[in-house]
Amino acid sequence: MIDKFREDVLSALDAVPSGASLAVGGFGSSGRPDTLLDALCDLDRRDLHLIVNNVGSDFTGVGRMLAEGRIRRLTASFPVLPEFYDEYFAGRVEFELVPQGTLAERLRAGGSGIPAFYTPSGAGTMLSDGSFALRYAPDGGVAERMAVRETRVFGGREHVLEYGIVADFGLVRAYQGDRKGNLRFRLSARNFNPLAGMAGRRVFAEVQHLLDGGDLRPDDIHLPGVFVDDVLLASAASPKQPTIPEVTR
Amino acid sequence: MTQQAPTAADGALSRDGIAGRAAADLRDGDVVNLGVGIPLLVPAHLSPGVEVILHAENGVLGLGSPPPPELADPDLTDAGKQPASLITGAAIVDSAMSFAIVRGGHLDVTMLGALQVSGRGDLANWYVPGRSPAVGGAMDLVAGAREVWVVMEHTDRAGRPKIVEECTFPLTGREVVTRVYTDLAVFHITGGKLRLTECAPGVCPQAVRERTGASYTEDL
């Protein structure tokens, strides 16, 4: 009998080692899996590569990971949090800046067995010509730049080659889930969650409601359980954690 | 290029005036994405009988007016992460589908602010070197929308032209802008050529010329 529900969040997340790459759902704090992100902080995981659209605007969720110095590399389109940039310019966090649609498609492609694809987004810009700084040196110089994208012309327009993303783990938050791992999202909290769920080799889903004694109806499933390995209950408390006043390293 | 003092030209439109002028060119049924700044003022200026579908990058097709605080729902936000509402007939999609709509040519118009626009239609609006780089969906929007309308003040705060021969800020996309709406004028860009099609009421073509850094033809 298939039962992907796990009672204990910390023992389930213990499978994630330091150094792992994580595809994370959410758009700002909307639909962000804070229960899972907090668990990884509580388990003292470090050196993580986060693939997530935003850091957010405060020290909760991804922001907490940043504040506690757990992020080695961020792949994102719109970090927002000023303290993230302090870490980036100081050379303590690598930053791969990706157009938002390219980020979504790279996750979808990685989860779909498509190793790479061409897109017009970013052609002829700093994000494809190899000039954007991926990593700064402690002295403020550029230590490494983002790779030059291969290009090809289709229909008279330049397109850039972007690679699918397969992450070690996917972390998602859903409104409803069942014990087979089927997920249903609510309103715009869906955003990157189905894609982070597709791109992870092993996927943890925190759900606000576990449908016990009945599965989600087939037509209501936004991400089928075939993509999901572990279903956990989102903490009942507000996803907001107390604000950490300072970035500490 | 003559540098002008940073005083508004006679007859220059307000920010709402620019938004209203751009809104007048939307067609009933258009699917539209609005960037931050003046574009967000556009919905208030739509003519009765013109229904547009507003798209937000985070997967909303059919944004309504901002809700009152008591109806704010953390699961329903716009692309600026502010509380949102839905119109009747709205749809929710994931981020990959949202950008399939954008890049697939299913978005009729995106309206964006700009740091600079070149006469060929190059756009710079995502990054001021030295500040904090973030791009969001801007590069996808300009690459994919059928029309890219820049809606902005004609000059920057120092009075320097924002319509220029070559952008000096990092580009968002090359040869992507199709129209420019400013407080002084409306320009169309086709085939890499900039064309002045309209001056704001009371603004003379000479005032536009003095504040524009790219060459163009007049088609008034």
Task: Tell me the span between the first and last alpha carbons of chain B.
Answer: 22 Å
- Sequence of secondary-structure elements of chain B: HEEEEHEEEHEEEEEHE
CATH-derived topology of chain B: Glutaconate Coenzyme A-transferase
The CATH architecture of chain A can be named as 3-Layer(aba) Sandwich
**What would you report as the Rg of chain B, rounded to the nearest angstrom?**
17 Å
CATH third-level topology of chain A: Glutaconate Coenzyme A-transferase
H-E order of chain A: HEHEHEHEHEEEEEEEHEE
What structural class should be given to the helix and strand makeup of chain A? alpha/beta
The spatial strand order of the largest sheet of chain B comes to 4-3-2-1-5-8-10-11-12-13
Low-confidence stretches of chain B: 1-7
CATH class of chain B: Alpha Beta
Going by helix content, strand content and strand pairing, the class of chain B is alpha/beta
Number of domains of chain B: 1
- Kindly report the average pLDDT value of chain B: 94
Short description:
Chain A has 249 residues and is an alpha/beta fold.
Explain this structure.
The complex is a heterodimer of chains A (249) and B (220). With 249 residues, chain A is of the alpha/beta class. Chain A has one domain (9-115, 164-233): Glutaconate Coenzyme A-transferase (3-Layer(aba) Sandwich), CATH 3.40.1080. Chain A contains six helices and 13 strands. In chain A, the strands form three sheets. In chain A, strands 1, 2, 3, 4, 10, 11, 12 and 13 form an eight-stranded mixed sheet that branches. A three-stranded antiparallel sheet of chain A has the order 5-9-8. In chain A, α5 crosses α6 (193-199). The longest helix of chain A is centred in the middle third of the chain and has 12 residues, at 100-111. The relative contact order of chain A is 0.20. By secondary structure, chain B is α/β, with parallel strands linked by helices. Chain B has one domain: Glutaconate Coenzyme A-transferase (3-Layer(aba) Sandwich). Chain B contains four helices and 13 strands. Chain B has a ten-stranded mixed sheet. In chain B, 49% of the residues are buried. Classes of the chains: A alpha/beta (249), B alpha/beta (220). At the A-B interface, α5 and α6 of A face α2 and α3 of B.
